[in-house]
Amino acid sequence: MKNDAAPSTTQSTPPLVPVILSGGTGSRLWPLSRKQQPKPFIPLPDGENLLRKTYRRVQNLKHAGRVLMVTNRDYYFLSRDTLMEIAPGASSEVSYLLEPQARNTAPAIAAAALWAQEQVGEDAVLLVLPSDHLISDHASFAEAVSRAMDLATQGYLVTFGIRPTAPETGYGYIAVGEPLAGGYQVQRFLEKPARAQAESYVADGRHYWNAGIFCFSAKTLVQGMAAHAPEVLMPAQMAYEEAQVNGDTWWLGAEFAQSPDISIDYAVMEHAENIAVVPVSFDWNDLGAWSAMGQLLPEDSSGNRAHGEVLLEQSQDCVVYGSDRLTALLGVGDLLVVDTPDALLIARKDRDQDVKKIVDRLKRSGNPLVDTHVTVHRPWGTYTVLEEGDHFKMKRIVVKPKEKLSLQMHHHRSEHWIVVSGTAKVVVGKEERLVMTNESTFIPAGTAHRLENPGVIPLILIEVQSGAYLGEDDIVRFEDIYGRTEVPA
């Protein structure tokens, strides 16, 4: 097409900008993955999470510069905390683009390309990575990135194709055309196929799984957006120009929400002609459903895969993901069992793609279990609901060292705080005092108050709420060091 950037033959080694897209709920991994702690942040069997693994994978890539993370504002502090767990300075090596509203991959990538053009240069090459993929072979990954960079510097929009190992019906496919140095021209993109069609794709050797990993120069991507998706590019550009910048963080403007909810595949890749695919054979798992998660667990002699305290008696070919209590199975087979403190999922293994239907029903009924766990993460720490009933709720609150909650007030509830470990600095009205271990304090409804951990160890306390209404939205925030305006306490 006339508007496509024409591939050139000039080779260069421009800077590489790893772009990590961190969002999405991972609804097929419910009840472990939920809106406020989605798939990139859930702990895997080895204790790591996918976002941390993705960051490690790009740290030492050749020509790589500063990492750019594009995420929803709700996940900003969770993302920073995740990287801080790698090393105290890890998060300072990342820049952030924060979306006011999730709008799929095309708007996110458009904003990333605009950022790269201004901050690095229009020839900067973007390596766009979902944060929820698992790739263990870092050497093969780096080699594939090198091939993709070569094609990107020639003006191609490059995608990565995974050589299929089975006739998967849950993945999109890429049909390859003429060969290129390091890859192929893309003939066409194909939707998730029926079983028979998927089997033919695997057999002919000219179809690859669409990995959702991309590589292109900032200039080429913006040109492609202008030609094929101006309705995506224009709101992203306005949102970037109106962004509030705070150090390494860009809070994109409200115009971002005007962009259509559309993937980069639909917006650009399926329409442009300068599309190339780099075929790869490294291990790749998008953990799209519980069967994929089960592959991370060791298999016993009966084909079972289990995590946590699990007892299996005369049971075969089951996947069991336990929590902090015993899960026992007797005389069953081909089951998926996922136990969390507040929700239990039991399904046939071959129905794991349909877990999303459960999540959809929960959404329609307004059930909070689609959004939150018993333990909720906040920038200052966590809280865990221990018990609740008519007019009362008990929480375990953990405040990280040197962190503090907002100065706030509640209209409908009073609170009792009992310090279990550490020292609390408490503001109640105009009074400020220290509350030591085994001491308590009381906050009447309608009184401004703040909780702070001045120490070097976590502050742990029990909060008992009482009142006519105990919802998290009963809050008036007067002052907050995290700049939050909508996220509850």
From TrEMBL:
UniProt cross-references to InterPro entries, sorted A to Z: GMPP_N (IPR049577), Man1P_GuaTrfase/Man6P_Isoase (IPR006375), Man6P_isomerase-2_C (IPR001538), ManC/GMP-like_b-helix (IPR054566), Mannose-6P_isomerase_type2 (IPR051161), NTP_transferase_dom (IPR005835), Nucleotide-diphossugar_trans (IPR029044), RmlC-like_jellyroll (IPR014710)
Record field: catalytic activity: alpha-D-mannose 1-phosphate + GTP + H(+) = GDP-alpha-D-mannose + diphosphate
Residue ranges annotated for the MannoseP isomerase/GMP-like beta-helix domain, each copy included: 314-362
GTP-binding in keyword set: yes
Source domain of life: Bacteria
Gene3D superfamilies: Jelly Rolls, Spore Coat Polysaccharide Biosynthesis Protein SpsA, Chain A
EC nos: 2.7.7.13
GO BP term, pick one: polysaccharide biosynthetic process
Boundaries of every Mannose-6-phosphate isomerase type II C-terminal domain copy: 369-480
One Pfam entry name: ManC_GMP_beta-helix
Keyword terms of this UniProt record: GTP-binding, Isomerase, Nucleotide-binding, Nucleotidyltransferase, Transferase
GO molecular function: GTP binding; isomerase activity; mannose-1-phosphate guanylyltransferase (GTP) activity
All copies of domain Nucleotidyl transferase, residue ranges: 18-294
Family recorded in the similarity comment: Belongs to the mannose-6-phosphate isomerase type 2 family.
Protein name, per record: mannose-1-phosphate guanylyltransferase
Biological source species: Igneacidithiobacillus copahuensis
